[in-house]
Amino acid sequence: TTGCYKCDLSMKITRMEKIHIMSVIVYCLAFVLGVLGNGVVIWVTGFKMKKTVNTVWFLNLAVADFLFTAFLPLTVTYTAMGFHWPFGNFMCKVNSTITSLNIFASVYILVVISVDRCVSVVWPVWAQNHRNIRKASYVSLGVWVLALTLSAPYFVFRDTLTYSDDTTLCFTNFALSDDHETGQFRYQAVAITNFLLGFVVPFTVIVSCYTVIIHRLRRNRTLASKSSRPFKIIAAVITTFFLCWVPFHIMRLIELDHHTRSKTFGYVLSIGLPITISFAFLNSCLNPLLYVFMGQDFKGIVRKSILNILETAFQEEVSHSYTRTNLTVTSRSKDKSVSDVQV
Description:
Elements: H1 2-48, H2 53-70, H3 72-80, H4 88-122, H5 124-130, H6 133-157, E1 158-162, E2 168-172, H7 180-219, H8 221-256, H9 263-294, H10 306-314, H11 320-326, H12 331-335
Antiparallel strand pairs: 1-2
Helix pairs in contact: 1-2, 1-3, 1-9, 1-10, 2-4, 2-6, 2-9, 4-5, 4-6, 4-7, 4-8, 7-8, 8-9
Protein name: Formyl peptide receptor 1
InterPro entries: Formyl_rcpt-rel, GPCR_Rhodpsn, GPCR_Rhodpsn_7TM
Pfam family, one: 7tm_1
């Protein structure tokens, strides 16, 4: 019996090693593609393209993903060294805070984009007169402040612990110097808050906005035909984000149920969490690929420069015929450019 148990334990260790190797490979892939891809998006939207409300949104989204992927080598080293953290307590806090910052900043930028598109469809004249780069920059700043605030607990509670064999663990120490029950309460509070504010609330707002948009587009076929490409791009970005992060949030909620934990339960978590984390990390390198492959026909990608591809993906459109036939626009509104109103 002892021999069989040792064989079973050896198989589990081998499986875990394989999962960790897979995680390292995924992290490296996300780092290379994420830094290069998001770096190109930042360069193009920040320095090469004409400033629009759309480019402000996508620039901030790329910055969030770039910051996250730039710190991935720390996680790669940590995992490759058998979860030994050699970078000190401060970087342990910073690394986890950056990960949380990426989650909240990305999801709330997507919320802002969804609300912006909804407003542009439902109230096009108001959007034409009030949407501008300055206000978009202020909104983006507000998103970053909110994301940093929601990420603060990880900077406070993240800690390091050095064992007798000089192996250092970077972990979330919710107990600090208090009792275990207080630490468990803090852990549950942070996890539930992250789930509600990092998934439930943003997802509800985004779905509501696109329900309104789809309803309005069905009523106006001309507007729908002229808005199909940018609509599909942002819909793909939002869908990809939630598909990548939902499994992670689910595993975190399962982890909260500590009362029913068993060896099997812990084994499922030990396998499920690394896999869902790897899947979530890939999201930060997928957006630039979506911009390229959905910004134009695939056959034309080879023939166009990166700048032209991203300009095609990010350009803002409005249905002129919709404005003429369905709205009475004042002479002041007619004099303004409609290129800054998009769906």
